[in-house]
Design brief:
2 copies of one chain form a homodimer. With 292 residues, chain A is an alpha/beta fold. Chain A folds into 2 domains: 3-54, Spermidine synthase, tetramerisation domain (Spermidine Synthase, Chain: A, domain 2, Roll); 58-284, Rossmann fold (3-Layer(aba) Sandwich), CATH 3.40.50. Helix content of chain A is 26%, strand content 31%. The first copy, chain A, is built from 9 helices and 12 strands. Chain A has a 7-stranded mixed β-sheet with strand order 8-7-6-9-10-12-11, with helices on both faces. In chain A, helix 6 (169-178) packs across helix 7 (196-207). The longest helix of chain A is centred in the first third of the chain and has 15 residues, at 58-72. Chain A is globular and about 55 Å long. At the A-B interface, strand 1, strand 2, helix 8 and helix 9 of A face strand 1, strand 2, helix 8 and helix 9 of B. Strand 2 (13-27) of chain A pairs antiparallel with strand 2 (13-27) of chain B.
Chain lengths: 292, 292
Amino acid sequence: MELWFTELQTPAVGITCKTSRTLIEEHTGYQHLAIIETEQFGRMLVLDGMVQTTERDEFVYHEMLVHVALNTHPNPRRVVVIGGGDGGTIREVLKHPSVEEAVLAEIDGRVVEACRQFLPSISGALSDPRVTVKIGDGVQHIREAREEYDVVLIDSTEPVGAAVGLFSPEFYADVRKALRPGGIMVAQTESPFFNQDLIRRTQAGIRASFPVTRLYLASVPTYPSGLWSFTLGSLTHDPLQVDPAAIKDMPTKYYNRDVHFGAFQLPTFVRQLVESADAPASLNGSASAGGA
Amino acid sequence: MELWFTELQTPAVGITCKTSRTLIEEHTGYQHLAIIETEQFGRMLVLDGMVQTTERDEFVYHEMLVHVALNTHPNPRRVVVIGGGDGGTIREVLKHPSVEEAVLAEIDGRVVEACRQFLPSISGALSDPRVTVKIGDGVQHIREAREEYDVVLIDSTEPVGAAVGLFSPEFYADVRKALRPGGIMVAQTESPFFNQDLIRRTQAGIRASFPVTRLYLASVPTYPSGLWSFTLGSLTHDPLQVDPAAIKDMPTKYYNRDVHFGAFQLPTFVRQLVESADAPASLNGSASAGGA
């Protein structure tokens, strides 16, 4: 018998993966959670039917969510990850020796527990003494923070259910207040092929609170369209003005000094998408020419 | 009733697309050919069950196969496309005013005819007076050419069936002889996540004939893993030494001056893959750390 897991990434396109077994499957109260064993990508975390991370390609997303900001900030000491219960983002944060404390604010404790049990190569860093795991609402955690963090990383699921609040202008304004002077935030902001309205909205929302707002890209095979965007908001420091010589060699498989700058060199249709974020009329418009 | 077309891109992962109808389906003598209507990507050309091009995302592959080389060569006048029967590569070639003749050498005349009928936005340029369509074996066409072309573009299918010869060191040596002084070739060289052995082999094969050999990347949603590689071989000119000011604005949706350089900024696992092409032992080795 062959078992295939299929995620419909849009109503009209999906990814399908051969699986050998289901390690855990449950409703957590927040969402449906599963970890399955796939032949192509190793173990895979699936929330509400959507691929969140896999053993084989998680390095792209986690490295790119973290290292651009942490190499742009001159001295990141306190970092908070909103969401990211698998622990992969925290693992990358801890590769920076300046980091004294890394806080994980994850709403669903069962995600953390399941990943600790079944995805140790991703979650292992959660046991590091520099890490504080807080199970609770990330929106509220940020709302209550005042100049506490050097970097805020928003490692959310798709903008449905509990994650909707993590994509709002009000949340980004709270992130700004939670940052120390010189602070930086990065949010995952979905696919420029499939989620153009969301990218326009998050661009506009982050720009409203941050003088430096920049979108960059990375290739994640298991995410819709394979091309993923991240949006960085910064109070002072510009990732494109970093001295390349100051970016140290790190034990990474995707991010490096060249990728730090190359990821901001946007295809024309993505550049137009970012520029169109200033035009309010486009918020509910249809996909632009480049959209698939 | 819902109809879904699924391509298994590897034995363990696939893409699945909702379809409304099949416009043409036949065995051509060379391969199985189909053009289907999909909801996500518009019309889609499928050869031997593998997605070749779609109306919505074809711009990425065609622009990136063409414009890097044609903006690196100072005066490309004669260009040949090997394969590429859909006409999209020729369309992009003709955007360069210096081009006097563009030859299409496609082995399967039925691909050209079907695309002329059902994919006019891609194939339309084949009717341009600067274009010569030659139905025949591209390997032989190149073998018989002596200093005829400024640029050779290898727009092949996957390395199976009729296309196998287009990935061999002997073919690249023939391409070199077919080029005029200062000539450049580019080949599509598959996914760095899924086709690592092929990338090592084509790197080694192209390096054996070309003093400048460089791999670059682009994001194509309908191709396996979403991340696609191209390998450029050049007799003289280096794409990274092009004066950015000499790259004119063009009517493109993906390629631009920034992408010209950014596409060569390789993720660490891809850089290691390219560097490992010098090590013969790796030719039959297993996937490296970065592979999915």
